[in-house]
């Protein structure tokens, strides 16, 4: 390769590198936290199944505690509907850690959750646990959950 040609390639590489977008990871983490918190608020309200399910991607997989996985929109909608049909059921969670990859388009949140469910005496009980959600930006730049995994501890459990 001749020196002028090599110089042109190096100059072109410098231009391409200089034009690469800079990712503001703090802003992305804040946006992801805000998305997860908005999702928790929608789930806690427990009235709009479509809104609750809109935070998952169309091909997401949900791994519920002690239940079969739900994959894809139809299975996830069925899972959400069946959960909301349980008398006294409610769910809430709070993200504690939010991580975004250097690329700015992939991240995860983790934190604590609470499920209120019927107890054997006819009342309700709250069971606490943890969750991890893997998020990816969609074509429109919105954060969508692609993998959702959560657990619960037995009543009185620690950790």
Features:
alpha+beta, Nuclear Transport Factor 2, Chain: A, 36% strand, elongated
* SSE arrangement, N to C: HHHEEHEEEE
Task: State the total count of DSSP E strands.
Answer: 6
Q: Give the CA-based shape.
A: elongated
**Terminal Cα span:** 63 Å
Q: Provide the helix percentage.
A: 25-40%
Give the biggest sheet: 6 strands, mixed
Strand arrangement in the largest pleated sheet: 2-1-6-5-4-3
CATH class: Alpha Beta
Radius of gyration: 21 Å
Summarize the structure.
By secondary structure, this protein is an alpha+beta fold.
Secondary structure elements and their pairing?
Blueprint: H1 3-19, H2 25-45, H3 49-53, E1 56-63, E2 70-71, H4 73-84, E3 90-100, E4 106-118, E5 124-137, E6 143-152
Parallel strand pairs: 1-6
Antiparallel strand pairs: 1-2, 3-4, 4-5, 5-6
What does the model show?
It is built from 4 helices and 6 strands, in the order H-H-H-E-E-H-E-E-E-E. Strands 2-1-6-5-4-3 form a 6-stranded mixed sheet, covered by helices on one side. The protein is elongated and about 85 Å long. The chain is an alpha+beta fold and 159 residues long. The termini are far apart. It has a single domain, classed as Nuclear Transport Factor 2, Chain: A, CATH 3.10.450.50. Helix content is 35%, strand content 36%.
């Amino acid at each position: 390769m001749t020196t002028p040609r090599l110089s042109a390639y190096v100059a072109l590489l410098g231009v391409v590198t200089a034009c690469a977008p800079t990712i503001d990871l703090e802003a992305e983490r804040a946006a992801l936290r805000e998305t997860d918190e908005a999702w928790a608020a929608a789930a806690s309200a427990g009235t709009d199944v479509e809104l609750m399910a809109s935070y998952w991607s169309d091909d997401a997989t949900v791994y519920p505690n002690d239940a079969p996985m739900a994959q894809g929109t139809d299975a996830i909608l069925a899972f959400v509907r069946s959960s909301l049909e349980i008398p006294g059921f409610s769910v809430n969670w709070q993200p504690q850690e939010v991580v975004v990859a250097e690329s700015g388009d992939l991240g995860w949140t983790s934190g604590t959750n609470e499920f209120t469910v019927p107890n054997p005496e006819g009342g309700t009980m709250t069971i606490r646990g943890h969750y991890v959600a893997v998020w990816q930006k969609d074509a429109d730049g919105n954060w969508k959950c692609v993998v959702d995994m959560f657990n619960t501890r037995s009543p009185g459990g620690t950790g």
